[in-house]
Structure formats: C-alpha cells, structure tokens
Amino acid sequence: MSDYNPVLIAPTGANRKRKRVGRGSSSGLGTTAGRGNKGQQSRSGKRLPYVGFEGGQMPLYRRIAQRGFSNAVFKKQYECVNVGDVAAKFADGETVNRETLAAKGFFSKKSKALVKILGNGDVSQKLTVQVDKISASAKEKIEKAGGVVTVTEEKKQ
Questions:
Q1: In 3D, which of 68, 148, 83, 69 has the Cα closest to residue 116?
Q2: In terms of Cα–Cα distance, which of 141, 132, 32, 13 is closest to 86?
Q3: SS3 readout for 15-50
Q4: d(CA 133, CA 121)
Q5: What separation in angstroms does the CA of 35 have from each of 32, 50, 55, 88?
Q6: Is the pTM of the predicted complex or chain greater than 0.70?
Q7: If we measure between CA atoms, which residue out of 115, 112, 109 comes closest to residue 129?
Q8: 3-class DSSP state for residue 8?
Q9: Helix (H, G, I), strand (E, B) or coil at 72
Q10: What one-character DSSP code corresponds to residue 70?
Q11: What pLDDT is stored for residue 156 in this prediction?
C-alpha cells in the first residue's frame, strides 16, 4: 500500500442544508411549516385513513349499488394429487385416504380441503383408494392395476 490519500470533495450543489421547518417566518417555512393552511394534511399525524377514503364524503365503492352474486364463499376447495405421485409413495395393498396422504406429505394435516385424485402418471400397485373425488382416467388406471376405488362425494347433476 502506498501513502497516497486523496481528499474527496463533493461536487458543488451535492450537499444541501436540511429544512428546519417551523423556525420563524424569516426561514421561509415558519407558521404553517410548509403544510399549507388547514385541512387534514396540515394536522400532525397526517395519514389518510384507508385506500378509497374521500375526505369524509361517501366513497365511490359505497355509492355504487352492489349487484350480482359471488359463489366464492361456497366454493369447494380440493387438494389435487396425481396417480403417478400416489404410486411412487404407496406400496402394494396400502390404503390411500386423506389421513395417509397427509402423513406422506402430499398436503398439510391441518388442511380442510377435500381430496381429489387426478389421472396424470401410471400405477402398478393394488391400492385401496378412499377419496372425496376422482377423475375418470385415474379411476380406470387404479382399477386396471387391480385396486379398489371408493368415492365419498358423488357427482350431483
């Protein structure tokens, strides 16, 4: 290392003095401290209450009539598992149901969703499958391998 020690100098205009608001009228930011006159923005703790707040006026989302119906609240949620994944983790003669699938790590044990088996992949083991729903191709593959399928939730038409 050499003893060279250059002096770093900031370019002109790079460093500015910080604004000291509310320090007298001659500072240029006295009296109202640069906040304007009156109103919500001029007060201390000036923060808008929520997105869509219109200063106390009835907000747009409440002025417009609510129309239609959403079925999202009543929608059934499914944990989908492929036949190929089931075949990889289950041995011949085992029972495949919600508890065993959760125990093997297909989904969380706390999950409240229903279970559906999909037909992606192949299966060669004789499995006893007891699930809420199953695709036609998955059912065909399991039964072709000699397994038994029991569906708890029947298709409504």
A1: 83
A2: 141
A3: CCCCCCCCCCHHHCCCCCCCCCCCCHHHCCCCCCCC
A4: 17
A5: 6, 21, 17, 67
A6: no
A7: 115
A8: coil
A9: helix
A10: -
A11: 54
Helix (H, G, I), strand (E, B) or coil at 145: coil
Distances from the Cα of 14 to the Cα of 11, 17, 149, angstroms:
6, 10, 75
List the one residue out of 126, 127, 73, 136 whose CA is nearest residue 100: 127
Using pLDDT thresholds of 50, 70 and 90, give the confidence band for residue 157.
very low
* Tokens at 2, concatenated: 């050499």
In the chain, count H helices and then E strands.
Answer: 4, 6
Q: 88 in helix, strand or coil?
A: helix
Helix ranges, the chain (H): 60-63, 83-89, 98-103, 136-144
Strands 78-82 and 95-96: unpaired
Report d(CA 127, CA 142) in Å as an integer.
7
Token duo for residue 133 = 């729903």
What are the tens digits of pLDDT across the range 112-140? 899 999 999 999 999 999 999 999 999 99
Pairing between strand 114-118 and 78-82? parallel
**Collapsing DSSP states into helix, strand and coil, what is residue 116?**
strand
Backbone angles phi, psi at 88, to 5 degrees: -70, -30
